[in-house]
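REQUEST FORM: STRUCTURE PREDICTION
Request ID: SP-0412
Submitted by: Lab K.M.
Chain count: 1
Length (residues): 181
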Amino acid sequence: EARRTATTLAAKQADLEQHQRALEEHQAALAAAHHETALLMETVQEGLLLIDAEGVIGAQYSRESTTILRQPDLAGLNLLSLIQHLVTEKMYATVIDYLALLFDPARREKTVLKVNPLAEIEVNFPNPAGGFTTRFLGFAFRRIMEGDRVARVFVAMRDITAQTELERRLREEEKKKERQF
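STATUS: Completed
RESULT:
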């Protein structure tokens, strides 16, 4: 009886040790994946983040997001509140309506994405020296579905100021040439 109990205990201990090794391997794999994700989020040149239906930003976001939005820590902040201080009241109302459409599973994503009012917006950041600094930002969105509901929305954003200013200068040059003709 004692020998059988000892054998059973030894077998259970070996089984526990095997499970422990498997858990440690799994934990190491998770840590490596987390490290790679962190490297990606540090390196990517776009602002990337997730928001919930209320506009709350998730815990993971790219470092570029903090640069674009000029906010050091975005986790738990509301993207709508951040945007509200940068755009006109009319544009803010449009943004609220658009995010409601994004989270409406009855609306086709393709159709909603076509009417994105944030594809190119002018924003005004307060300037510490006084006044404002005008920038142009471009936002793109993708839904993340869980079953038949929109669980989150993936947000990709870029500072497109240089591109926008170049396009404006080119248009002005073309107009100038047309007038000279």
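NOTES: Helices lie at 2-43, 63-69, 79-84, 89-102, 109-114, 161-180.
Reviewed by: T.R.
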